[in-house]
Amino acid sequence: MKQTLRDAATVILLRDRVGGPYEVFLMRRHRNQAFMGGAYVFPGGRLDDADADPELAACIGGICAADAKHLIQETDLPEATALGLFVAAIRETFEEAGVLLARDARGSVVDLSAPETAARFAAYRLELHEGRLTLSEMVRREGLLFAPDLLVPYSHWITPEIETRRFDTRFFLARLPEGQVPVHDRMEMTESRWLTPAFAMAEHAAGRIVLMPPTLKTIEELLSFPNTGQLFDAARSQRIFTIFPEAFRTADGFGIRLPHDSEYTLAAYRQPPRPGETTRIVMEDGIWKTRVYKNEE
Predict the structure, then answer these.
(1) How many Cα atoms within 13 Å fall on the side-chain side of residue 192?
(2) What's the structural domain count of the chain?
(3) Residue 262, φ and ψ in degrees, nearest 5
(4) Whole-angstrom Cα distance, residue 172 to residue 12?
(5) N or C of the chain: less Cβ packing under 10 Å?
(6) 47 near 7, Cβ under 8 Å?
(7) What does the radius of gyration of the chain's CA atoms come to, in whole angstroms?
């Protein structure tokens, strides 16, 4: 299994609103993409070799490699890979959404609101897409440091074996920095929306947007938190279990069992029951739906 998995990082980007519930940023993948084409997703992507380059340490502030490993809660993970996942999360969020989790020489989170600054970083973003610039070259040129401490590890999903492209993905929480406006890249991503968790679930249920199982389950979990403060506090104090869904056949096709489902059979990933919480995600009428399964035996 490990030979077919690719390490990856995903960022659940959130923003608070005055007088209303918080929102999550979702982007629509290009319909022509082989993996999750047309689905609405969080910013993210696979870990590149450059993300785990030890020379990047000079471009990183806030946490070190040992801290990253502790925060991700994976004892067998090399420290360089752990820190690299934070870097990959920062890189992908900038490349796909234009949001940069970095600090300037004064220690302030970078502000991209000035027109000339926004234009300069938009040009950097295009150069990154075209392979003419690396993110480390950009932050050195601007005198910035990556800010992985702005990311809070949230969950860990492994793509089921039924899929041909499989990822070992760590999900992170992050607040939208002041002075930054996310914009989808118009290449891999064709649309973007800020949605409250409740409205995102409703749009998906109505078939107006498509959420794949990890995104759907994550947004469903966000419904439990009335504000981002409680969400971040819970994320910082929780134990992160690896979620390795187990695929099974249904009358309409197939679904997945989550590790706390009563009929989940993969002993290495099984988790204690969570009464009342979604245990399965099934495809019904062309839409992924969460379900609570109770074994009556």
Answers:
(1) 20
(2) 2
(3) -65, -20
(4) 6
(5) C
(6) yes
(7) 19
- Give the amino acid at 261: D
Closest to 139 in 3D by CA, of 89, 174, 87: 87
pTM score, two decimals? 0.93
Both tokens of residue 191?
Answer: 């649309």
User: What does the pLDDT look like over 90-115, one tens digit per residue?
Assistant: 999 999 999 999 999 999 999 999 99
Distances (CA, A) of 293 to 75, 126, 244, 272: 32, 47, 17, 14
Query: 190 and 130 in one domain?
Result: yes
d(CA 10, CA 225): 20
pLDDT band at 217 (very low <50, low <70, confident <90, very high): very high
Per the listing, tokens 């249904």 go with 250
pLDDT per residue over 22-44, tens digit each? 999 999 986 665 455 579 999 99
